[in-house]
Amino acid sequence: MSPTRRRTRRLPKYRRARIRHFLFIVGPNRVSGGRITRRHLAQGVVVRESEMASPRWPEAFDGLRIGHVSDFHLGALMPIDKALEVVECLAAQQPELIACTGDMVDLDSPDIGQLLAALAAVDAPLGCLLVLGNHDELHDPDGLAQCARELGITVLRNEAVSIARGGTAMVIAGIEWGRSAVLCARHVDMACGDGGDPHLLLAHNPKAFLRAADLGIPLTLSGHTHGGQIAMKKRPNTNLSITHRRSIGRFQTDGSMLYVTSGIGAWFPLRVNCPAEIAMLTIRHDPAPAPE
Ligand SMILES: [Fe+2]
Q1: 140 alpha carbon – ligand 1 mean position (Å)
Q2: Whole-number Å distance between alpha carbons of 72 and 107
Q3: Domains of the chain
Q4: How far is the CA of 123 from the centre of ligand 1 (A)?
Q5: Which of 55, 80, 216, 253 has the greatest number of C-beta atoms within 10 Å?
Q6: How far does residue 21's CA lie from ligand 1's centre (Å)?
Q7: 128-137: per-residue pLDDT in tens?
Q8: Max CA pair span of the chain
Q9: What's the CA gap between 265 and 272, in Å, rounded?
Q10: What separation in Å is there between the alpha carbon of 264 and the centre of ligand 1?
């Protein structure tokens, strides 16, 4: 597809996103004299520790500690100072690997380079990997990806890479944004054709898990849903993300695991019973078949 055609397709989406931004963020904030955004920004980001286990997970990577961050939405509801504090907190958890599952920006942000540089500077021995989300695609996905790569972040756009720990290799695949399960599946197939069977899949949309489980990929990490942002008390899966069956937390199908993070940022300035999170995941090889 030529750059011109891509631009003409993308512009209406960007305009729609700006209108939504005005309706849900700028307008209510002006009416409230800035109170809504101030209250939202004062909410913290929790560190949520989770352990997941599967017989499919490679024994050589037993105990791998992944720092999973997603959906910063850098912009009006996530100023760079707050984003950098989150990265500092992530670094303090000493992850071996950092997985960023998209929506780094909300619309576009002059501060994105600073955020990517901070992530790249975290001392994670197996590196930092990134896939793009639907919001990253609104303005300049290629520029964002190039900036990340120049800083040393591995950006996966329907492709896979191999990393090694203790002489054993692991294949990590990452896909572009796809709205539907069908499109996600197409992207997963493209990524899997590059570098052998993946052990880990990064996909902004958790709907990619359907194909990942079909293929027996041991672990998929996703974001996008923000956990619905508003959830029932003590029932995180009852939330506003009604188009996603798997909208927050841990899932397992036939030994394939999925973690959907509630993310760091927001697209509207409210979170109820659904805190923003840095997900610290410890992944275990468990020879016993896991209950479904
Ligand atoms: Fe998002």
Answers
A1: 16
A2: 11
A3: 3-285 (3.60.21.10)
A4: 25
A5: 80
A6: 13
A7: 999 999 999 9
A8: 59
A9: 13
A10: 9
* CA–CA dist 289, 30 (Å, integer): 54
Q: Give backbone dihedrals phi and psi of 54, rounded to 5 degrees, phi first.
A: -160, 150
In the reported structure, the alpha carbon of residue 1 is separated from the centroid of ligand 1 by a whole-number distance in angstroms of 26
CA 291–ligand 1 middle distance (angstroms):
30
Q: In the beta sheet, which residues pair with residue 163?
A: 170
pLDDT in tens, 209-220: 999 999 999 999
Q: What is the DSSP letter of 208?
A: G
Ion ligand 1: residues, CB < 5 A? 71, 103
Using the mean position of ligand 1's atoms as its centre, give its distance from the Cα of residue 61 in Å: 29
Rounded distance between C-alpha atoms, residue 17 and residue 248, angstroms: 24
- In the reported structure, the alpha carbon of residue 183 is separated from the centroid of ligand 1 by a whole-number distance in angstroms of 18
Q: What pLDDT score was predicted for residue 9? A: 52
